[in-house]
Amino acid sequence: MSALFERFQVRLAERAAQDLIRTRRIASSPTAPRQVIDGVEKLLFCSNDYLGLADHPALVQALQEGAERYGVGSGASHLISGHSEAHEALEAELARWARDCIPDARAITLCTGYMANLALLTGLGDREDAQIFSERLNHASLIDGARLARAQKSVYTELGELEAQLRASTAATKLIVSDAVFSMDGHLAPLRELLALAEAHDALLLVDDAHGFGVLGPRGRGSLAHCGLRSERLVWMGTLGKAAGVAGAFIAAHPSLIEWLLQTARPTIFTTASPPALAHALLKSLELIEGEEGERRRDQLELLRAHLVEGLAPLAAAHGWQLPHSDTPIQPLIVGENAAALALSARLDARGLRVPAIRPPTVAVGTARLRITLCADHQSDDIDTLIRALQP
Ligand code: PMP
Questions:
Q1: Atom 4 of ligand 1: nearest residue by CA position
Q2: Residue 170 annotated as binding?
Q3: 211 annotated to a ligand binding site
Q4: pTM for this model (two decimals)
Q5: Cis omega before residue 324 (within 30°)?
Q6: Where is the Aminotransferase class I/classII large domain (predicted)?
Q7: Of the residues 84, 219, 222, 234, which has the maximum number of CB atoms within 10 A of its CB?
Q8: What was the ipTM of the complex prediction?
């Protein structure tokens, strides 16, 4: 083998020695809560399809209708000819949702949440006179966006530290950036306090609501509405491939800021628009999320969450595992060492359940965990199955 490839082999071997090799498994059915993986049906506790909409018949039908009307590809970027009436309608609907919390909000959609975060941080932090204040636990896409941006950057772990950083900053544009729900922990960021700091220091507050959109707040309007926030300083980003069950993402904010992103943000300008059929299906998804069906599914999630915590608490106490408080259908079970988390995940796998071990660098060293996620299509019996399977 040429030395060129040997170097990769050596690095892969180093990862293997630290129990850091990940594998892709092959699914041959729709997702959550059961999925056929590598030919075997598994009970999943790892999907982000929180409301169980990813295989909802009304969405499958809407996608088919969309494909019939628009074809399967958009053919170009939004600014060329890829912006369909379905995208336009979806953006109008998301803007309507956002106006609960952001007066006069306008929204744009992007192909993925990862790209939306790159667009936000590079678009708003495009100059040296901007400063990004990023929470330490933020998602990788926000970290990567901050790395790409030309702005100054600082990382905070708690509000006092953020306040000191804001006070010391002379940047013309200040951007506080936080996940609304921390994706590996399930708890909410202190959004009210963050907004108060943004007000006090004339900053924008960018909130990544990937895991709150559709799940939290009245009618599933997400974390900002859940916390009762309202301000034109808010920039709301949400993903559409998790609770909304399809794919894509949106950014909603003051119209001048959205127009700026539309004109300048490279992750939306230099990429093909998502298929219009997806936007068509997403319109149906929003209808379900805000309607009775969404309410019912959110209620079920709440019941399941309480049942899960009740079952996990004695197990965690007996094994010395940590069971942090979660506000959402994401419940971590912190085991500690990578090998221990892997062994537990493998045991569950052998018992027909899929709960992957989350290891560094996704989480801090020594906090490897099972990240258990719930879906509204789970039944109480499924939780009992999980609890039983976790017993030695
Ligand atoms: N932000 C957070 C907090 C996420 O968890 C994720 C996805 N795991 C993303 C952004 C990226 O979203 P997408 O999957 O749509 O690229």
A1: 210
A2: no
A3: yes
A4: 0.96
A5: no
A6: 41-390
A7: 222
A8: 0.99
